[in-house]
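Predict the assembly for these two chains.
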Amino acid sequence: MSRFEYAPALESRAIVDIKSSYGLFINGAFTEATDGKPFKTISPASEEVLAEVSEAGPADVDKAVRAARRAFDKVWGPMAGRDRAKYLYRIARLIQERARELAVLESLDNGKPIRESRDVDIPLVAAHFFYYAGWADKLEYAGAGDDPQPWGVAGQVIPWNFPLLMLAWKIAPALAAGNTVVLKPAETTPLTALAFAEICQQADLPPGVVNIVTGAGRTGQALVEHPDVNKVAFTGSTAVGRAIAKSVAGTDKAVTLELGGKAANIVFEDAPIDQTIEGIVNGIFFNQGHVCCAGSRLLVQESVYDEVLGRLKRRMESLRVGDPLDKNTDIGAINSAAQLAKIRELSQVGEDEGSERWSPECELPAQGFWFPPTVFTGVSQAHRIAREEIFGPVLSVLTFRTPAEAVEKANNTPFGLSAGIWTEKGSRILWMANQLRAGVVWANTFNRFDPTSPFGGYKESGYGREGGRHGLEAYLAH
Amino acid sequence: MLARVTTTDNGVDSLADVTSSEDRLRRFLLGLPGVDQVGAEARAATLSTRSIKTTAKAYALDLAIQMIDLTTLEGSDTPGKVRALCAKAKRPDPADPTAPQVAAVCVYPDLVATAKFELRGTGINVASVATAFPSGRSSLAIKVQDTKDAVAAGADEVDMVIDRGAFLSGRYGLVFDEIAAIRDAAGDAHLKVILETGELVTYDNVRRASWLAMLAGADFIKTSTGKISPAATLPVTLVMLEAVRDYHESTGLHIGVKPAGGIRTAKDAIKYLVTVNETAGPDWLDPELFRFGASSLLNDLLMQRTKLATGHYPGPDYFTLD
């Protein structure tokens, strides 16, 4: 009998209408950049150019901040919370209506599998707007005092790993709290932010409440250093986060930073083994490992090491790497050539330091940026691949003997964004969660997100919380 | 009693120990890794999102037809009803002779002879439920006799039920001994052991009962009688597929899995096949190792098959009732 080979099941691209070039979205309209050069955004799966995008220079950023200030003073700031909520609900519904289009666009520009953009990213984006819409007229119950006030203009810089979801995490609470925003999407993934700009127009959002300025580091720097920005929110690398913290030091800007991670995913000998394997896979291969809270350090109790590794490798052999628009793809493309180079470099370091590298046999497409799912065994705390964030589908496996040792190893990192615990013993979960210095601790699951749950880091993973009531507080002066 | 151990040449002796006493059996079953409910259901839901199109769909539809145990288990069953079902089993789609035959026809023991006669020379097996199906609430002597009657009448496969009351009260040895006794009574007939997962409720119980049945000599483990709701579900089948995969890894033996009841659409059947493919592996994509206990499923498979070949749906009246 022949084998069950899944035929290609491609999601149609016909639903998205990508323009050949995009301007900046300032004061409710797309406008030409005045002092920057246009740049191209490509599909990382094929290297095909998708569109030309404008780079915002300091003058453009200034224009955007002025528009945001005007909107804050004249319209959005004075508006009643219940009226702001109406706009947010409208945006949420428009996102749901255009969900399939946004999912395809996200997968094209970012390289992530359509299964994830369709089932995770876009539903969570809509859920964030719905959730914060509900808060807009209830701010006095947010725990920020009786009469909490918005900061004013928020300057927000987001990464390329969850482009539209990170936009939602930033914009939804900011608008609910009464701030106006200037947001800079990542230079490799600007398209869904620009589609969101269209949604703002469709929702009749007053001009200037949301402004989208595209560009790279220079644009982001101009934004966070702009003197009329009251609140800075950044998600991205620890290095850039540090630079931002320096540049705003001594100003009265409020700042939240959500930075890197090197999360420990801790497997005890009494773990529910099959679900644990799924959790390990989901922890590190979800979104090609381009996840700040990825479970990139697997800590396995030595007594079950062979069994866990054997099962993990068997499971990895069934992962399907390929075209992000194929509905059966589990692992898509690496977002950029630069990121691929970084993953390759650190993987080489792993080998050079004496760790054993393993990947299942998988054929990678010739065009585009690809990296196979990879496991390193024989890794110790001293190895760079156990300490540095790889931000790719690369798992480092370490072992431990006792719960106390697991805690020590898990905490022995400058980061502290997330952690996972796998055990059938409830009391151990609670004990571990109290010991771990990580902002999010998952028990018998991993990489689960919900708008009602706060998210954020310890130590070099940043400060401030996003999501939930806590995420709202970051946008309220009190 | 507790003795049956079926190991192959490369089989592992450690499993022989497991059934050497009731105490050891209990410790083994209670020592199996737990199943996290949320995680198991999430995995089944993810597998359900696989999109099976064109050539893959054609392959899956034909395979699913060949895996059906076409079933009638009603008090109102008659020789006439069984004859009609057998005709359907032999030629599921009168309009299309390329449609494959089903794997077996499943009836009560008193109708085995009728089915056997109708299916002579076709290669289609006759399966019979036995052991005081569906509740299993009778003495071992009667269950054994029920099985012997079915086999004497020509049953190629016996679908027995476990004693859920004994299982839920922790009397694993009793359940084991009963399965082993029926295994002996069934002789050369293939033994499918129905766990009735809708009454076991937890996935931990499903995993334990799966191992118990395999250790006691089951050729197949089957979810449900079809008389209890819920019958087969995808997460339950996933847990059972994990059990046969792990059992194969320790003994080298291939045990089959049969979800039964509640699978009515081709779309559902394909989700099960995807789960088989990505859990137990391609070896199990074979009617020898995977079956669907179903009746109405067949017509939906035939309808989708015709749609795939001709581009349009013929409508339900173009397919025979039985």
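Chain A has a mean pLDDT of 97. The domain at 264-443 of chain A is CATH 3.40.309.10 (Aldehyde Dehydrogenase; Chain A, domain 2).
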